Please model this.
Amino acid sequence: MPKVKKIPQRQCVGCREMKDKKALLRVVKSPDGSVSLDFGGKKPGRGAYVCHDVACLRKARKSRALERAFETAIPPEVYDAMEKELGGESREQ
Model:
């Protein structure tokens, strides 16, 4: 009988759904304090996960979920850059 490999699950900080780790995008706070998207999932630092959807990133921004996960304030420019990388246009608040 072949062994079944366990697929790691992570929770999206935007929609709060559990999904396969490979189906989510990792947002990482590096040891120097900068926050960026990690498309490969290998950057060093504290990670939080969000769906490959601009709506989930906006939900996480509105609820300040990434700021709670990283225990630091995240400037609006970082969120705007992440939205552009995900394919959505940034918006002013």
About this structure: The radius of gyration is 14 Å. The longest strand covers residues 24-29. The helical segments are 54-63, 65-70, 76-86.
